[in-house]
Amino acid sequence: MTEPLPVCYLNGAYTPLHEARISPLDRGFLFADSVYEVVPAFGGRMFRFREHFDRLARSLQAIGLASPHTHQQWQTILEELIRRNEAAQDIYLYVQVTRGMEFGRSHPFPAQSTPSIFAMASPLPLQSEELRTRGWAAITVEDFRWGRCDVKTTALLANVLMKQRAREAGVQEAIVVRDDEVLEGSSMNIFVVAGGQISTPPSDHRILPGITREVVLELARDATPVAARRITLDELRTADEVWLSSSTYNVVAVTTIDGRPVGDGKPGPLLGRMHRAFATLQAQAT
Questions:
Q1: Residue 55 half-sphere exposure, CB side, CA atoms within 13 Å?
Q2: Annotated active-site positions, please?
Q3: Which end of the chain is more exposed for a tag (fewer CB within 10 A), N or C?
Q4: pTM (2 decimals)?
Q5: What DSSP designation does 232 have?
Q6: In Å, how far from its chain's centre is CA 276?
Q7: Beta-carbon neighbour count of residue 60 at 10 Å?
């Protein structure tokens, strides 16, 4: 796991990360009453900033919390965070907004509270050349998350347990399945390639529609049939290629699922084309 960079933003001030403090009465700490975003930045410039903060606004609205900043204000805060960290490498920015604190612990929203705002920067994780060439391994897990996975909330205990189960199995990711239907990874969206078509589960309350997922669909539409549709577990297991996407890893190949190879057990040709298209898009962003 990459280490965060030394300067963070907390409630209006830039401060050394190791000195940042919040109240134990903050509702984000007590109830996970908070939402977050993760935005990659390449060459010091944020990638798909507006799309990420449109989603943050939707998450805040879903939990009944007014956004504390406009898009322009968010952009100014994060550009200054990038500048203060003087990051030479590509990074990602983590932003969290909680409902704030009250003196006590009451489930209903407090009559008055000031949102807590936290942001930090970390280097983007790097894949080893071996893992890039070999692809990721994954297991399938039955879904036991809450019912509003489309809200990017910090209530991630189920996802944490799924990821830990993957680690204990010696693989990189857990693929979430509900009633024989494939939904997403524990922290990533999923794509299945079969017969030259790229498919991904439809956007609904059971998945978090990723910004990178939308970029993949955007790039693929120019050259390949794409569909957002129901994907069965059998389709997953018989696919030619399986991909995972996220803001921190872009798109990666899954070459083994539950100990069985996907396709020929190697990253497929369509993924190679997607990597090249992504590289071109990111270069334009910087």
A1: 22
A2: 152
A3: N
A4: 0.95
A5: B
A6: 21
A7: 20
